[in-house]
Amino acid sequence: MKIIKKTLLGLFILLAVAAISVFFWLQSTKPDLNAELQLKGLKAPVEVIYDDFGVPHIYAQNEEDLFQAFGYVHAQDRLFQMELIRRLADGRLSELFGEKALPSDKFFRTLSFHEHAKWTIDSVLMKNPDAPFVKAAQSYLKGVNEYIQNGKTPVEFSVVGIKKTPFEMADMQIIMGYMGFTFAEAFRSEAISTMIQNKFGPDYLKDVMSAWPTNEPKIPTQAQESVASSSIALASMANQLTDIETNSPFPPYHGSNGWVIAGSKTKSGKPILSNDTHIAFSQPSVWYEAHLECPNFKFYGNFLAGTPVGALGHSQYGGWGLTMFENDDVDFFREKANPANTNQVWYKDHWENLKVREEIIKVKDKADVKIAVKTSRHGILMNDSFDKMADQKDPIALWWVFNQFPSYHLEVFYEMAHAKNALEVGKVVSKLTSPGLNIMWGDTEGNIAWWAAGKLPKRPAKVNPMLILDGSTGNDDPQGWYDFSLNPQILNPKKGVLYTANNQPADMGNGLVPGYYVPGNRASRIEQLIFTDKKDWTEESVRKVINDVTSSSFTGLLKDILPVIDKNKLSPSAKIGLEKLAKWDGSHHLDDVEPTIYYRFLYHFFVNTIKDELGNEVFKAFEHNSNFKRNMASFMRNDASPWWDNISTKNKETRTEILTNSMNEALASLEKQLGNDMTAWKWKKVHTLTHNHPLGILPVVGKYFNVGPLPAPGGRETINNLDFSVDSSGTYKVTYGPALRRIIDFSDTEHSRSVLPTGQSGHFLSKHYDDQAEMFVNGGSRPELMNRAEIEKVKTGKIMLKP
């Protein structure tokens, strides 16, 4: 017995020593925010002051030192995030995670971001080596690499087994390429559109994939103001892309809200800008905040991992916000393959050789995988990137605006940060090519402006760019480019308000820009709340709008479709559910019951209308398709739609039957899931937000890397757009939403306010890892400080960087 006790005591001591050792090791990996360090290459000392939310405020005597110091502190907080996004975009995740990452690597290696980065470096950056934006980028890389060489190793590097390697200019460009891909909805939509067109015909297609619905709100423009084969295999591409994005260690971009109110309508007399970018949630947060200051430059920005220029931000003169333009800048071409030579395709009257290069993907614990990347005159052939398309007879080529030009993002965002007014910004943003971005601007001179920036192709009149085109004849090829003056835009509108919510811009006199614009729900609600006679807007009153959780569009839809339901055939609980929905104002507060009923009804409606035609695999991707979401309301109002009939049955179902059955099934499934007490079906029980870290999947320890779950107000296409998949689970785990909420009153640029979904730090033991998470779901905010005296008062750390 004594031996057993001694053995157990010994084991306990060993475990305790091991636990203490692990604890101190983990603590030793945390960044030291109070230090004096030497940084090679600095010309003069630099101060970095951390405020009470972990935001670095960097003070330097020149710009090159400023950006070098920023690179160092950015890497100190977010090196693992930087490492993952460059590996994801470059198709190098399999080196870390093995075969399960191969589909993602094959896809991104085929997209050829590295080749595009080399082109940009050679044709833009190296031709202007003395340009300030090039020097800023090079200095930033110096700082990042100084931290990689001499700084602490992030915990994740040790857990995953990542070897620290220097960052290069190409990595920076590759990351920007990834941003461009996630903005391109055509990757997810055009194969499905073609499948529906080919298999079921135009009557089916027009109900769910048509252009902008007639009565939905369009973004006003300056011009408007001045005039007052195997279709299933093909569609599987969208489903596989959905899987790749769902499992991605870095989130895709989805949408956003933004508006600017002129000084004539604000209490301060200066413009107020509001912006919340919609991005899939992850941990750490997508955006990293920093305040950069040196003589002649003072800027507070939001930065993507691995990039030196703020994608969002403001100076003492002005600032901007972003949303996705949603223009269709991708076309897919079906090429005619030469049966005698797999490296040739037909064009007009002859066989053309494809360009071919070999890519080698290294796979952990497995042999290297070789892929051939082939390119026609229309673009990269995509078939080998997708499992069920590899054997298709005719290859599909990707024509993408992004690949037609080198990238000017670095230059554009550097110059915007230095711009003083709207006229300067208008000249700068005209250089953007792809992805298309809505850029909203306000400045202290009183200007407000919006530009839909991006290169717009001229397509033949007969071409429907939302379907896969014919590459063999040349008849579907793009015919050139529109001048930037024809892009949707507006400067100082008479209404004193401008906004974008990823909806269709109005005509600039050259026809509507084709695109994958989202439903008009958010746009309608924004117009309802800010297109008013109110002339005393403040940051506080604007914040009530940015946190709004009501969709008035849902109430209008339900008013039209609920009377169609046959009440005589409803179950008792379904009758009560219908009555609740009939009185619903569209709100998505935590204690509301109606959204729980509405989305369950929506799921059964989806199953009963579209799943029989599409099948399980395509249905999964289609439910979240932007075109379908945009057209869903008009489809539900269309009594003659062919989708109402279930093709799997002999009878011809009607809209009344489908809607009635969907309501009965919804209430029955809710009772099974949540019990018979309908008052307990509160939105907070089923709608939650978890910020998942890439290591959150690990057993036991993974939960310490994730943040949440947190009950969250908001819903699909409310202004506070906390979206989710509508599936059989009956729970609505938030997948994407505002990656920040920031408001700038240009009467006081030193006290803008913002909030991040979790926090600044990438280290899971830092207090700034999740110190904004509760604030975020509760609609709160904290200051973006730019006044040094006030920053000193809330200082939590100071790093001195010396030459």
UniProtKB/TrEMBL annotation:
Sequence intervals crossing the membrane: 7-26
EC number: 3.5.1.97
UniProt keyword Lyase present: no
Keyword list, A-Z: Hydrolase, Membrane, Transmembrane, Transmembrane helix, Zymogen
Example of a GO MF term: hydrolase activity
Keyword Isomerase among record annotations: no
Protein family: Belongs to the peptidase S45 family.
Protein name: Acyl-homoserine lactone acylase QuiP
Recorded name of the encoding gene: quiP_1
